[in-house]
Design goal:
The structure holds 2 protein chains of 2 kinds.
Chain A lengths: L1 H50 L3 H20 L8 H18 L6 H13 L18 H36 L4 H9 L7 H15 L17 H39 L2 H9 L3 H30 L2 H6 L5 H10 L3 H29 L12
Helix pairs in contact in A: 1-4, 1-13, 2-3, 5-8, 5-10, 5-13, 7-8, 8-10, 9-10, 10-13, 12-13
Chain B lengths: L1 H10 L3 H23 L2 H9 L2 H4 L23 E4 L6 E6 L5 E11 L7 E9 L6 E7 L5 E8 L3 E5 L4 H7 L4 H9 L12 E11 L5 E9 L15 H37 L1 H16 L2 H12 L3 H13 L2 H14 L2 H8 L4 H37 L10 H10 L2 H4 L2 H29 L7
Antiparallel strand pairs in B: 1-9, 2-3, 3-8, 4-7, 4-9, 5-6, 5-8
Helix pairs in contact in B: 2-7, 2-16, 5-6, 7-8, 7-10, 7-11, 7-13, 7-16, 9-10, 13-14, 13-16, 14-16
Classes of the chains: A mainly alpha, B alpha+beta.
């Protein structure tokens, strides 16, 4: 019996291995293509909206014509020119400016160029926005704003994620308690966005108590000593970071708490309790382990949120991050900047979604990559 | 029907649900009152009106009730018109066609601070000979302060702080100097307001038969009304009241539209499966890549700020979101239920199964989502308004905050300006969120104990 079974085993194993490989490869390929197509469509839509189907062009053309006509007429050096000369000069300058902004190329073609450039991360030049170093390169503008956003969003989001996770875990053990009831009662506070609490924070701590700055990244003039500089940034960070943190805090705790409660009412948890395991062991092995995929997903989405910035909170606190930049870019009709910001977010999202499938399979033995079609 | 009655009875057992329900009903009542008391066209006219509508109000004035919380009282704004009997007016015929018109008004001044400005708006009628008036203010201690002697054109405005006589006497430069001079106790070492009854007396003379003088006395205090005023002297009450129906309508329509559309699309996708489902899934994924708020801002900035456009864009961008994925997962389970199989067996059509069997099953999940969703959309509308992308004609809460931000209300200490709309927003948000959370626990008993 044993002798006959022995030689067959490797064959089975091999075919199993190759089918696993094929399955994973096929799944990976299909998934990558689907995600890439998704990103292409989303970026093309963003480009279309950022142009408003050519409406922005009409506006910008009118603006260029107005600005150049004004400039030519106001220039004292042109005073001796005849109206015809002025007209030809104005027309030439308008044409030059339109060519400089590539507005002579048909919109559909320009959109296609935008799309290809965006997808290859060739972000190009901004139309109006300028980085603090004076560059119009979109990449530089984004990179300049990135640290501020990473600091603000990283602080608030990571703080929010870990504090609510651990508080929820301890609350789920003592549900029905006083603390638990307070958290449930305060959950509706998360209906308000971060900027809303930001206004209250400014009012209380900056305007009335005068112990915190109204906004900005550092005090003016910025301290030259790096330690003092860091402390100044930290002081400016507290109010906006706390506003963002607070607006998500109770809902996040509530969500995790309910989630952990569902898992801690499973039979195997009761069994573990009956066996007399310590609550620490129960938590780690029987509650946190099966919920790990969800925790990982949430963490990945948290990291994504760090990139996207908080438009209104940054605007209200005059925080020079990506959120405020996108708002300014929209105000300037600066399509390259808007598209640049969106494409990077889209890529990050696609990569995260793609990686999550593999992480699931790593942390949860029940999940098989490409096996079955769970939603 | 019975089920509804039962769930209503359930609601009454939860204090948080009652609180939420009361808040929502109160807001609906305010909204209905606002629409009846100030009809839409009137509200727009008031909100867009300039000095001609709001001349009688001071600028940047907090609400009058803050005096209850202050030891030093601020002067309250008021105005009185002789044309409608608000000011006492006595006409004594003189020799020939002349007549003496004496207009007087007595008011109590009990504040510990000086008013912003005093104004007189004269309306006169005459053919050739311009009427003439001398204006005096009698103080409580019996002094007479002569304000001006002037000829009166058909529409003549007198600003007290700009009258040469007063400026020379009290020092010009700032209108505060004149106000201080008028209302100070001359015996006090430091400027202290003199409290008591002041009397404004206008002695006018007309020189023609049929010539008349009427005056409108406007006292710009430091506080005004129930809600205060903004930089255009507008009564914030208009926007606070009208913001309620706008916020409720935006929140409810957006939440309702999104919930129902999401439910139907998820049900159709889950039921038909195949390429229909595939298309829905792909659209959802594309939509989740699109940056929601930047796109709304772009639509507002480039295209149209009309509230219906923004509402439509909000609904369109939110339909294919996380909700579809969550609903679809539940529908996929539901599809395999016995009662669906029974319906299939008797030959029910696809549409009948979707709309009569699958969707009704989800209503208990839908209602709490819908109610708590309202809070988010009320804040979304405010968010756009705070970014300066609110509907240009409508008075809304978000626009009050935007005006306040732009005028540096927090820096200058006009806290009422931001707090009033913020408190209303918070009240609305909390009300709907509370009700939604409680409904969730009532309709979905699996979570009830938790």
């Amino acid at each position: 019996m044993e002798a006959t079974a022995q030689p067959e085993a490797p064959i089975i194993k091999k075919s199993f291995a190759s089918s696993t490989f094929m399955r994973v490869a096929k799944y990976t390929g299909v998934r990558l293509v689907v995600l890439f197509v998704t990103v292409i469509v989303a970026i093309y839509l963003t480009i279309l909206i950022a142009n408003m189907g050519g409406y922005v062009d009409t506006m910008m053309r009118a603006e260029i014509e107005y600005d150049i006509t004004q400039a030519v007429n106001a220039n004292p050096a042109n005073r001796s020119m005849t109206p015809e000369q002025k007209k030809t000069m104005t027309d030439q300058m308008i044409t030059a400016e339109i060519n400089r902004r590539h507005m002579n190329v048909p919109l559909a073609l320009r959109n296609a160029t935008y799309l290809v450039n965006a997808l290859t991360l060739n972000l190009g030049q901004a139309i109006r926005m300028v980085s603090d170093t004076g560059s119009r390169t979109v990449r530089l503008i984004l990179l300049e704003r990135l640290p501020a956003t990473l600091l603000l969003m990283g602080t608030s989001e990571l703080f929010l994620f870990f504090s609510s996770l651990f508080l929820a875990l301890s609350l789920s053990r003592q549900y029905g308690s006083w603390w638990d009831k307070i958290v449930i009662a305060l959950t509706p506070t998360s209906a308000a966005p971060g900027w809303f609490y930001g206004i209250f924070m400014i009012l209380i701590f900056a305007a009335v108590l005068k112990i915190m700055p109204f906004g900005g990244l550092v005090s003016t003039p910025p301290p030259t000593n790096p330690v003092l500089f860091a402390l100044s940034v930290l002081k400016h960070l507290i109010l906006p970071a706390f506003s963002l943190f607070f607006s998500g805090f109770f809902l996040s705790i509530y969500g995790w708490r309910t989630f952990f409660l569902i898992y801690s009412s499973e039979d195997y948890v009761d069994m573990a309790k009956a066996k007399g395991l310590t609550s620490r062991d129960i938590e780690r092995r029987y509650i946190l382990r099966p919920t790990l995929p969800n925790i990982v997903t949430n963490f990945a989405l948290t990291l994504l949120a760090v990139w996207s910035g908080a438009i209104v909170t940054e605007t209200i606190f005059l925080w020079p991050g990506l959120g405020r930049m996108i708002y300014q870019a929209i105000g300037f009709y600066d399509v390259p900047v808007i598209v640049g910001d969106t494409i990077i977010f889209a890529y990050l999202l696609a990569i995260t979604v793609f990686l999550l499938d593999f992480i699931y399979a790593l942390v949860d033995p029940r999940v098989k990559i490409g096996g079955g079609s769970q939603s | 029907m019975n089920a509804l009655k039962n769930s209503f009875r359930e609601i009454l057992r939860y204090p948080s649900a009652i609180a939420g329900l009361v808040a929502v009903l109160a807001l609906v009542a305010v909204a209905v009152y606002a629409m009846i008391a100030i009809p839409y066209s009137k509200a727009i006219e008031l909100w867009r009106g300039g000095e001609d509508v709001w001349y009688a109000n001071p600028k940047f004035a907090p609400p009058a009730w803050i005096n209850f919380f202050r030891s030093k009282k601020l002067p309250v704004s008021f105005h009185a018109n002789s044309a409608d009997g608000g000011m006492e007016k006595v006409v004594t015929p003189g020799s020939g066609d002349t007549a003496t018109v004496k207009i007087s008004y007595t008011f109590d001044f009990e504040a510990d601070a000086y008013p912003q400005e005093l104004m007189l708006y004269f309306t006169t009628t005459y053919k050739d000979k311009m009427p003439f008036a001398s204006i005096s203010l009698f103080t409580p201690d019996g002094r007479e302060i002569r304000v001006a002697d002037t000829g009166l054109e058909p529409q003549q405005n007198i600003r007290f702080s700009q009258q040469d006589r007063l400026v020379n006497r009290y020092g010009g430069g700032q209108q505060q100097n004149v106000m201080q001079g008028l209302f100070s106790d001359p015996k006090a070492a430091t400027p202290t307001p003199l409290k008591g009854k002041y009397q404004l007396v206008i002695t006018g003379t007309t020189f023609e038969a049929g010539s008349t003088i009427d005056a409108n006395f406007v006292f710009h205090g430091l506080v005004y009304g129930l809600a205060g005023t903004d930089m255009y002297r507008r009564d914030l009450m208009v926007a606070l009241l009208w913001g309620t129906p706008v916020a409720l309508a935006f929140g409810l329509l957006a939440s309702l539209g999104i919930s129902i559309a999401t439910l139907v699309i998820a049900a159709v996708g889950a039921w038909y499966g195949g390429w229909v489902d595939e298309v829905i899934q792909r659209i959802t994924e594309v939509n989740m890549v699109l940056p929601f708020l930047p796109i709304l801002i772009m639509i507002g900035a480039f295209f149209n700020r009309n509230i219906t456009t923004i509402l439509g864009a909000t609904i369109l961008l939110s339909i294919f979101g996380g909700g579809i994925k969550a609903n679809r997962a539940i529908f996929l389970q539901l599809r395999e239920s016995m009662y669906i199989e029974a319906a299939r067996a008797y030959g029910a059509s696809n549409m009948r199964i979707i709309f009569q069997y699958m969707i009704p099953r989800m209503i208990p999940l839908l209602i709490p989502q819908l109610v708590s969703g309202v809070a988010g959309f009320v804040f979304l509308e405010a968010t756009l308004a705070v970014l300066g992308l609110g509907d240009p004609t409508l008075p809304t809460w978000g626009k009050i905050i935007n005006d306040a931000e732009e005028n540096g209300a927090l820096y200058k200490g006009y806290y009422y300006w931001i707090l009033e709309p913020a408190v209303l927003l918070m009240f609305t948000g909390l009300g709907f969120a509370l009700l939604g959370f409680s409904l969730d626990r009532i309709f979905n008993p699996r979570l009830r104990g938790m």
